[in-house]
Amino acid sequence: MPLETEAQRQFYLGVAGIQLWYARKPQPGAAPSPDFDFGEVVGADPLALAPGPKGPQPLERLGSDEGLARVQGLMKQVEGARRSVDDKVAEKVPVALSTISPEVATENEDRVLSAETPDNNPLPVGRLAEASVRSSLSANLKVWVTESFVMVCAVSSDTSVQLQENLATNILRAMGQSVKASQTFMWPVFGNPVVPGNDAEGFRQVLADFARDHTGKKFLGLGLLSDEPYEARAEWLKSAFGSLQVDYPYGLAGIATDPERKRSLWAELKPLLSRNG
Prior knowledge:
By secondary structure, this protein is α/β, with parallel strands linked by helices. It folds into 3 domains: about 1-25 and about 35-55, no CATH class; about 60-120, no CATH class; about 140-275. It has 9 helices and 5 strands, in the order ααααββαβαβαβαα. It has helices at about 5-15, 45-50, 65-90, 100-115, 160-175, 200-210, 230-240, 250-255, 260-275, and strands spanning about 140-145, 150-155, 180-185, 220, 245-250. It has a 5-stranded mixed β-sheet, sandwiched between helices. It is elongated, with a radius of gyration of 31 Å.
């Protein structure tokens, strides 16, 4: 619906909570613009000047109590709709948990507890839930490539990125290496976890393809997947990068402000220098 006057336009903007300000005089370099038609009265409240619109009537301005009552009413409607959907989903579940007999439950539990890993070693009880890396994996990694090494580091958004990047280049410089290339990997790519290829396996394949492009270099890992179970994490990283020459548990942000961690990391890196030389 076209707005005929500036007062009409300001009425709708006022309802939306937007207040406009106008320059007292033309600004240097500003493009020319037509004079605004504020209606018959200038300087009064635009909401009081606005003529009745020709199209749909605007929503009335509500007092705080009335507005709160409407919001609460909408929340109740949404909650009722959600419960209705949950009830319909529950009706479609083929077997309710309450109908499983104790004998069947015990049999299923025994079957799970007797599960074995590929190397025929039973998983410890209590670690069964940690048999794999989470499917909804989230990671922010940066990779620095040199002549002999590929250093893969976890990057924290809570610490200065420049500080972390400077630390990484300083580490490589101390090893006698100069950075040839760098690349960032942020996962997941899409916010929807059910998008094909957006899970942990898709991320592993991306990293494995990158690692194949740098076959022959030594891979160093700093703070990779630190929140994942140890056994599953080690297997996942091995399938992505192959053998890691260094698998340090802290990322760049955790190392930058801790001198003890810097010394500990350097103790793990030093043996590689003699073998590389």
